[in-house]
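Subject: for your reference before the review

Hello V.,

The reviewers asked for a structural picture of the protein, and I figured it would be easier to keep everything in one thread rather than splitting it across files. Below is the amino acid sequence we used in the manuscript, unchanged from the supplementary table.
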Amino acid sequence: MSWATPLKGLSSSGCTVKAKTTALCVATPPPSKNCPSPLSANTWRPSWSLEFSLVKKVLYVKGAPEIVHGLCATTSGNVDKATLDAQLLGYQRKAMRTLGFAYQILNDDDVTIVDQKVVAERLNFLGMVAISDPVRADVPQAVQECLSAGIDVKIVTGDTAATAGEIGRQIGLWGDHHSDRAIITGPEFEALTDEEVYNRVDELKIIARARPLDKKRLVETLQKRGHVVAVTGDGTNDAPALKQLMWDFLWAMVPL
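And here is what came back from the structure prediction:
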């Protein structure tokens, strides 16, 4: 069974979808021609095979949901911002990483990116996904051994404050007994004067939504206070901080 129909929301732009139903076999063996995508044992589910014929280009955007949503003029399903924010916070409080997605069908004269910033004016927010990245079982003990040895541990991450706080709680670095001064975001950290950072840096446990220069500034300030600093990093964003160190460790990947 097959038919052609305008794709919802895209019909005015000449986008047509040809769709046909397929039987999706779900079982434990690896994918095969007759069983392309196992989902759960011993069940059958319908799937859609879509063939797109677009006469216009489409801009797709992904990133932090709160940022992507802020760029959008409309939201699929007319979901209001308060509902999205509540759902997003719920995911983050479970230490889940989140991504938001949006799209815009482009006209020939549309300006979409200026100075590496998205300036498209008709983006539609499609939704978000939440990704579970559990803390490794041995991490809490390793953190406690460091603390017992007099080594102060700090989390510097691009995750949101809610996600970073929950990860800190799970590894025993953050708890209800800590004040709000123990956690800060990258923009808030950047807004502090050098003197304010110097006076506060020892009590900081978590810097969320951190940028590369935030990490470098943290390392520099800790060194000014006489600390010996070590950093583990998994990417180029850590390069400025790693370069600043007395002794540094660059790991290909160190997931929590």
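For the response letter, the relevant points are probably these. The chain has eight helices and 14 strands. The CA atoms of residues 154 and 205 lie 5 Å apart.

Happy to draft the paragraph if you're swamped.

O.
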